[in-house]
Specification:
Blueprint (H helix, E strand, L loop, with lengths): L2 E7 L2 E8 L15 E2 L17 E7 L32 E6 L11 E3 L19 E6 L2 E4 L5 E5 L5 E5 L30 E8 L3 E7 L5 H8 L17 E7 L4 E6 L15 H8 L1 E9 L6 H14 L8 E6 L6 H11 L4 E3 L8 H25 L1
C-alpha cells in the first residue's frame, strides 16, 4: 500500500515523500541525502546547559586617554616648548554575527570597552585601545529599552557598533599658538557612549517540538539528536528550550528545539505563559507532538493550534508535521484509531522511547531540511 506523508503549509498540503516497497529504491539526486546517526555515546556529564534567546545588556565604550602636559628640555634650550602627546582613543564594543554561535548564553549583562592609553612627553601619543568584539548568532536583533529596533544582524560577519569609545584628549602641544607659547592646559579623554540593549534571536531553530506537558518532546529530542534535556514522569520537566542538532551526510545541520509544554490558556499567560509562545514564533517549522496515552488525542492538536492562533494569527499554519507519540502503550492503538477517524490530517504514530517508526519521522525531517536549503539558495540567487 502506498502512503503519502504531507506537510501542511499555508492551508495547502505539500506532498513530501511517497513510500512504497517499489519506489523506495528509486531515489532522485535530492533524495540521496541521508541522516547521520552518531555512533559516539552520549556524554555522562549531567550539567544541563540551557538555551538562551533573550538578554539585556548594558554596554559602554572605553574612555579616551588623557593628553599629557609636558615641556621639552634640551641641553641648549631649557624651554624648548610644549611636547605633551595626545591620549589614545577608547575601544568600541562591537557585536559580530557568526554562524558557529547558536545561543545567547555567553552574553554578559555588562560590557565595558577598554580605555585608551594616556599621552607621554616628547610628543608620544598614547595607544588606542583594542575593540571588544562579541560574537552572536546570525539573526540577532538589538532593541532599545523602549522597544525600538536599533540593528539586525542577518548576514555572516555583519557587525554592529553598540557603543563607541571616547576620543583621546589632546596634549598641551596641540594648544601651542602665536599668542600662547607655553600652554599649561591639556585635555582629558572623553567618556565612551553608554547604551542598554535588549538582545533577541529572531530564529532559534529550524524545527520546534510543540505539545502538552509530558507528551514526550524531550524524549523525542534525545532520540533524534545528541541533546540531553531532562526527562521525568511529571509535567513541566522542561522549563527552558533545549536545542538538538540533526546531522546529514552533506555536512548540513537541522536545529530542533524542545519547547516547554503548552496548556489551555497559555496565550493568557497561564502555565509557563506567553514568554514560551515567543520561542515558537522563532521556529521556522513545527512538529506537533501528541500523547496517545490520553483519550481523544486529536483535541490536543486543536488546543495547540488555538493557542498559537490566539498568540499570533497564522502561526499555527506554518510548515508542520503531526506526530502521535507513545504508540507502544496498550491504550495507544485504540486512541490512534479514533484519531484517524476524527481528523483529516496525516499523522505519524511513533514511540520516541522504543524507537518505533523513527525512520519515517527522520525522513520527513530530511524533507524539511531540503525545503530549507532550497529557500536559502533562492534567497542567495535573488541577491
Amino acid at each position: 500500500m502506498n502512503i503519502r506523508f504531507l506537510l501542511r503549509y499555508n492551508n495547502s498540503f505539500v506532498i513530501l515523500r511517497k513510500f512504497s516497497s517499489a519506489n523506495c529504491r528509486e531515489q532522485t539526486s535530492s533524495e540521496t541525502l541521508n541522516v547521520l546517526r552518531s555512533k559516539k555515546s552520549k556524554s555522562k556529564f549531567d550539567r544541563f546547559k540551557n538555551f538562551i534567546d533573550w538578554r539585556r545588556a548594558q554596554v559602554s565604550g572605553g574612555r579616551g586617554g588623557d593628553g599629557a602636559c609636558s615641556f621639552m628640555h634640551l641641553w641648549c634650550n631649557a624651554n624648548a616648548g610644549p611636547d605633551g602627546g595626545d591620549g589614545g582613543n577608547g575601544g568600541h564594543v562591537i557585536f559580530k554575527a557568526c554562524s558557529q554561535i547558536t545561543s545567547l548564553a555567553h552574553i554578559e549583562s555588562i560590557y565595558r570597552g577598554l580605555p585608551g592609553e594616556k599621552g607621554y612627553s616628547k610628543d608620544c601619543h598614547g595607544k588606542s585601545a583594542e575593540h571588544t568584539i562579541i560574537q552572536v548568532p546570525i539573526g540577532t536583533t538589538f532593541k532599545s529599552t523602549e522597544g525600538k529596533l536599533v540593528n539586525d544582524l542577518d548576514d555572516e560577519g555583519q557587525i554592529f557598533v553598540a557603543a563607541r569609545g571616547g576620543a583621546g584628549g589632546k596634549g598641551n602641544h596641540f594648544f601651542l599658538s602665536n599668542e600662547v607659547r607655553a600652554p599649561l592646559v591639556s585635555e582629558m579623554g572623553a567618556e565612551g557612549e553608554a547604551h542598554t540593549y535588549v538582545i533577541e534571536l529572531k530564529t532559534i531553530a529550524d524545527v520546534g517540538l510543540i505539545g502538552f506537558p509530558n507528551a514526550g518532546k524531550s524524549t523525542l529530542l534525545r532520540a533524534i539528536s545528541r541533546a540531553k534535556p531532562k526527562v521525568a514522569a511529571y509535567p513541566f520537566t522542561t522549563l527552558k528550550p533545549h536545542i538538538g542538532v540533526v546531522h546529514f551526510d552533506n555536512h548540513g545541520q537541522l536545529f530542533v528545539a524542545d519547547i516547554p509544554g503548552i496548556i489551555p490558556g497559555a496565550h493568557k499567560n497561564k502555565g509557563l505563559g506567553i514568554s514560551f509562545l515567543r520561542h515558537i514564533e522563532r521556529c521556522v517549522s513545527l512538529v506537533y507532538v501528541l500523547d496517545l496515552s490520553i483519550p481523544k488525542p486529536w483535541i490536543q492538536l486543536e488546543i495547540l493550534k488555538y493557542e498559537l492562533e490566539k498568540y499570533r494569527e497564522g502561526l499555527s499554519e506554518r510548515l508542520h508535521i503531526v506526530v502521535a507519540n507513545k504508540v507502544d502503550l496498550p491504550e495507544a492503538e485504540k486512541n490512534f484509531s479514533e484519531m484517524r477517524d476524527c481528523t483529516s490530517l496525516p499523522v505519524i504514530a511513533i514511540s520516541a522511547k522504543k524507537g518505533n517508526k523513527m525512520m519515517e519521522l527522520m525522513t520527513l525531517l530530511k524533507d524539511i531540511y531540503i525545503h530549507k536549503e532550497k529557500q536559502e539558495n533562492e534567497k542567495l540567487y535573488d541577491q
